Amino acid sequence: MKINTRTIKPKLLTISMVIMLFCVTNTQAANYNVSSLANTGTGTLRQAITNANSTAGTHTINFTISGTVNLTSALPNINRSMTFNAHASGNTINRSSTSSFRLLTINSGQTVEVNGFNFTNGATAILLRQ
């Protein structure tokens, strides 16, 4: 039996292109919601940053709760480009510890937009690494 390689090669190329397209579109931006004002745990700002840092793309972190996040340690460094949106009633990120630390550190090459927040009591509220 003779196999026609002219029809097999284009089909393999098409399948490869579909797989590549899926991989490229699978790294799209994601939205993470902050539903807890706690320092750590599910639904917190710390967890949202950790999740966003672990996924390729530009992400958005939205607060679904208003109030103050009292931090007892520095938040994870920002390793991805992302947007932070406070609740419509506003949010405050506050250092609630006797030790000195920055509230937010943005690593080199990242674009970060912060909307509607107050930062209080940090050693230096935001550090931009170059």
List keywords for this structure.
130 residues; 2 helices; four-stranded parallel β-sheet
Written overview of the protein:
With 130 residues, the chain is of the alpha/beta class. The protein has one domain (30-128). It is 23% helix and 28% strand. It is built from two helices and nine strands; from the N terminus they run H-E-H-E-E-E-E-E-E-E-E. The strands form three sheets. It has a four-stranded parallel β-sheet, with helices on one face.
Question: Topology of this protein?
Answer:
Blueprint: H1 5-25, E1 31-34, H2 45-53, E2 59-63, E3 67-71, E4 82-85, E5 91-95, E6 104-106, E7 112-115, E8 117-120, E9 126-128
Parallel strand pairs: 1-2, 2-4, 3-5, 4-7, 5-8, 6-9
Amino- and carboxy-terminal Cα gap: 64 Å
Shape: globular
Q: How many discrete structural domains?
A: 1
Q: Please tally the helical runs, counting DSSP H or I stretches of 4 or more residues.
A: 2
SSE order, one letter for each helix or strand: HEHEEEEEEEE
Unreliable stretches (pLDDT < 50, length at least 5) are 16-25
The assigned structural class equals: alpha/beta
Report the portion of residues in β strands.
25-35%
What can be said about the biggest beta sheet?
Answer: 4 strands, parallel
Rounded mean pLDDT score:
84
Q: Enumerate the strands of the largest sheet in spatial order, edge to edge or round the barrel.
A: 1-2-4-7
Question: Rg to the nearest angstrom?
Answer: 21 Å
Number of strands: 9
Helical coverage, percent range: 10-25%
